[in-house]
Amino acid sequence: MSTSRRFKALVACAVVLAATVTTTSVTIATADPDPLARFHGQHVDWHDCALGADDELGRALDDSGADCADITVPLDYTDPGGRTVTVAISRRKATDTTHRVGALLLNDGGPAGASLHMPLTKREVMGEVADRYDLIGMDPRFVGRSTPLDCGWDLGSAPLRSAGADRAAYREEVVLARDLAERCKQTQGDVLPYVTTRNTARDMDVIRAALGEKTLSYLGYSYGTYLGEVYTQLFPGRTDRIVLDGVMPPERYSSTLLRGSEAANEAALHAWASWTAARDDTYGLGATRAEVLATVDHILDAAAEKPLRIGKTYLLDEHVVPAFFIGGLGSDLDERRAELAATVRLLARAADRKPVEPSEELAGQLEFLLTGAGSAPASQMTAILCGDMAERRGVGSYWRAVEESRDRFPLAGPLANNINPCEFWDRPVEEPTVLDNDIPALLVAGTGDPRTLYSGARAMREQWSSSRLLTVDGARQHGLYGEYGNACVDERVNAYLSTGRLPAHDLTCEA
Fold first, then answer.
1. Tens digits of residue pLDDT in 392-435
2. If residue 381 lies in a helix (H) or strand (E), which one and from where to where?
3. Is the peptide bond prior to 111 cis by the omega test (within 30 degrees of 0)?
């Protein structure tokens, strides 16, 4: 689930994956009553984060005083004496040792969002509260600097494709989805059954134990909220302070990740169109909302007729163009809306068959969506979704859902309901997680979030009656704490992280 920021973060994953850790082997003493004892008690070898002179992330972590380590975990938790993999973590140690709370593990979402950087980004918003925690960034198994996974796709956009305008275009998607699934089975079939959220949650508990912590505090965004929920179910009693931002309840998590969010995304598109129309002198996309939306329709129609040429290298067809709109609608901040408007201006010129040169930022997105540069992060995202929720619905069911949604949601419907490789994946080795617990947690949600719906946050609040819901009224924003510039949100989350006391009742901040 991606905001514009997370869309770009997936692009950056391809760079991080250049530095990987090889699979290792650990012998387990089976006589120990705890079959995971060797993992729980492993020595953590902290080291510099930079992997070379060109490693900007590593140098930034080092400069901040953070260090890094690789945690060994079982590939298959039912066979802890078998093959192992590594999970890369970063740590910025607590400096206020007198008031130290413990470890705060951070996850940026995804699925497959690398999170090694998060002690840097969350330290600023947390202020003095950060000094009371060991801030722990984690690249989940097979992501970023952890043991890698790459299906060798020559395009990297499998989770972000649209069905297209007609049945012929959809048949192309069916062929592609089947081919991508087969390539993953051929190249990564031995590990695919273990690329799951439940195993990532188990890795989190190994990290907890290896760090010598009795409990974990946790901050997760988007998909990271689902990961946090799974952890609480698998390891009851091992959590301390939990913040879930952009809440996704388990019953709404599926392999078609955006299904159900069509209306929210179309509403966000209309809101963006009104914002852009008010700045027609800058962007020239239309002086009214209707005119801007007509420009969007023109771009989509042109891409369906003939791929749009961007520069000398890139061709954008009807399956890819909608991802640029959806990817840009995760925030109502002016800066993000301006970025989308600038991209749409280029797409509009391309739709008129005029020469267009991409900006550096747009070129990076195109590289991710259209070439092998995006293969690794897209493979990882797909593998997690399919490992959690693969379902054989029949290829016709997706097309019927696309057609049923198209009239009301012409942009989001064909993308959110499109077929994906999970239709052709092997069945998951475990059933999806069902929550039957109740823990104290702070849930953060915007009423207009186009990725994880506000109704999902309210449903989670009802299930976890001990939790509290912090609502940002009027925000069409995915990811609020430390990302929206809303002092009300930041202060209330920090108060909870500082004291461990939830508000007496649900709270509301204004956007």
1. 899 999 999 999 999 999 999 999 999 999 999 999 999 999 99
2. helix 375-389
3. yes
- Please give the structure tokens belonging to residue 457: 């946050």
- The per-residue DSSP string of 263-282 comes to HHHHHHHHHHHHHHHTTHHH
Q: Can you tell me the distance from the alpha carbon of 210 to that of 204, in angstroms, rounded to the nearest whole number?
A: 10
Phi and psi, residue 179, nearest 5°: -65, -45
How many Cα atoms are found within 13 Å in the side-chain-facing hemisphere of 439?
26
- Condensed to tens digits (0 to 9), the pLDDT of residues 20-36 reads 333 334 444 445 589 99
Cβ-based neighbour number of residue 159 at 10 Å: 27
**In this structure, are residues 112 and 13 in contact, taking their beta carbons and an 8 Å threshold?**
yes
CA-wise closest residue to 160 among 286, 324, 328: 324
137, β-bridge pairs: 90, 106
Domains of the chain: 36-148+194-255+433-510 (3.40.50.1820), 167-191+256-424 (no CATH)
Assess contact for 200 and 111: CB atoms under 8 A: no
Report how far apart, in Å, the C-alpha atoms of 458 and of each of 167, 243, 442 are.
Answer: 37, 15, 12
What are the start-end ranges of the H helices in 103-256? Answer: 118-126, 167-188, 197-210, 223-234
CA-to-CA distance for 36 and 80, rounded, in angstroms?
7
Phi, psi of 104 (to 5 degrees): -115, 105
| CB-based burial label for 219 (10 Å; 0-12, 13-18, 19+) | buried
pLDDT in tens, 463-483: 999 999 999 999 999 999 999
pLDDT at 348 exceeding the cut of 70: yes
